[in-house]
Amino acid sequence: MGDPEVLLEVYEVIRNRIEERPEGSYVAELTEDDDTKPAINKICEKIIEESGELILAAKDGDREGVVYESTDLIFHVLVLLAYLGIEIGEVFDEFERRRK
């Protein structure tokens, strides 16, 4: 099984890309307002898209597709959290609170 620490690493990379905005960065582009859409709309639309793809993969019994689309969905949720300034630790804390 993979190391769950990778979520923290990916989150930090996302935060860094939002802050430093390197040219050619997908995250930097996604989290920047443009002439047609505010960044929050672009991020939320990606979450909707990835959710739908995950649901279809699950419905089709596509195990690899579920893993792939889950990764895409989680990635975009991490982008949303970072964009909104929500630390991933806050989500972990909520999981711990609910576990009790």
Would you give an account of this structure?
It is a single chain. The chain has 100 residues and is mainly alpha-helical. The chain has a single domain (5-83), classed as Orthogonal Bundle (Helix Hairpins), CATH 1.10.287. It has helices at residues 5-20, 26-30, 39-59, 63-83, 88-99. It catalyses: 1-(5-phospho-beta-D-ribosyl)-ATP + H2O = 1-(5-phospho-beta-D-ribosyl)-5'-AMP + diphosphate + H(+). InterPro entries: HisE, PRib-ATP_PPHydrolase-like. Its EC number is 3.6.1.31. This is Phosphoribosyl-ATP pyrophosphatase.
Q: How many structural domains does the protein architecture include?
A: 1
Low-confidence stretches: none
- Percent helix, as a range, is over 70%
> What is the average per-residue confidence, as pLDDT, rounded to a whole number?
97
State the separation between the terminal residues, measured CA to CA.
25 Å
Please tally the β strands and state the result. Answer: 0
Major sheet attributes: none
In the CATH classification, which architecture applies?
A: Orthogonal Bundle
Topology:
Layout: H1 5-20, H2 26-30, H3 39-59, H4 63-83, H5 88-99
Helix pairs in contact: 1-4, 3-4
Keywords: Amino-acid biosynthesis, ATP-binding, Cytoplasm, Histidine biosynthesis, Hydrolase, Nucleotide-binding
Protein name: Phosphoribosyl-ATP pyrophosphatase
EC number: 3.6.1.31
